[in-house]
Write a structure and sequence with these properties.
CATH topology: Rossmann fold
Number of domains: 1
Keywords: Methyltransferase, S-adenosyl-L-methionine, Transferase, tRNA processing
EC number: 2.1.1.33
Family: Belongs to the class I-like SAM-binding methyltransferase superfamily. TrmB family.
CATH class: Alpha Beta
Strand order of the largest sheet: 3-2-1-4-5-7-6
GO molecular function: tRNA (guanine(46)-N7)-methyltransferase activity
Structural class: alpha/beta
Function: Catalyzes the formation of N(7)-methylguanine at position 46 (m7G46) in tRNA.
Order of helices and strands: HHEHEHEHEHEHEHE
CATH superfamily: Vaccinia Virus protein VP39
């Protein structure tokens, strides 16, 4: 599928919010080009490890990282791990760039367009984990086809995750949680190792919380946290 075909049914909505301040615009112009992946270019000969400026023990992908609270926490938590973050919303990308430590940029790469471009570009079995946290739920039935969890994208996840790799999903929208459970449990490549009936109410280990989660609690919604294992 071409990038133009993918963009016509992109899984995200608007690209910009409030106008950037001068310092934010400068940050975006100077930092992002140094860290941005180009899925139109050849992959390094040594695969995903060659994308980073230092040796890494494994690679994690976060799709739609928002303001970056979770991604920045995981970067700090795992100093030998490489991270790829995808976020098409300009204001969120700028906020993340303002929070990352210069020393960590060596093992972080970013992409500011449709995550499918990156999923189709990365090599087989190159990721330890994929995080999809509070994605746009596209609540209207006519828009459900734009939900990121789909059979096609689960096929992509299965190709990219190592055996035993994890796909983590969080949402406060019940219909999207149920949708995701049904989609993933129907896919032959994944197991859902829920330890007890309420396991999906427990945040992931080391969970820092996010502003989307805080909003859900304020508005009376209870988030769900789903973790699936690549067979």
């Amino acid at each position: 599928m071409s990038q133009s075909e993918t963009r016509s049914r992109a899984f995200f909505g608007r690209r910009r919010g409030k106008a950037l301040r001068d310092a934010q615009a400068e940050r975006l112009a100077s930092q992002l080009p140094q860290l941005r992946l180009d899925p139109g270019s050849p992959l390094p000969e040594d695969g995903v490890a060659g994308l980073f400026d230092m040796p890494v023990d494994g690679t994690v992908l976060e799709i739609g990282f928002g303001g970056g609270e979770h991604l920045l926490h995981r970067i700090n938590e795992a100093p030998r791990t490489g991270f790829i973050g995808v976020e098409p919303f300009v204001n969120s990308m700028t906020k993340f760039l303002g929070g990352i430590e210069p020393a960590d940029e060596k093992r972080v790469r970013l992409y500011d367009d449709d995550a499918v471009h990156i999923l189709d570009w990365l090599p087989d079995a190159c990721l330890e984990r994929i995080d999809l946290l509070y994605p746009d739920p596209w609540p209207k039935r006519k828009h459900w086809k734009r939900r990121f969890v789909s059979p096609d994208n689960l096929d992509r996840f299965a190709r990219l995750l190592v055996p035993g790799g994890r796909f983590r999903f969080a949402s406060d929208i019940d219909s999207y949680v149920n949708w995701t459970l049904a989609m993933v449990r129907a896919h032959a490549a994944f197991d859902w190792p829920a330890r007890h009936p309420d396991a999906w109410n427990e945040p992931f280990a080391g969970w820092p919380g996010t502003r989307y989660e805080a909003k859900a609690f304020r508005e009376g919604r209870r988030p769900a946290y789903l973790e699936f294992i690549r067979r």
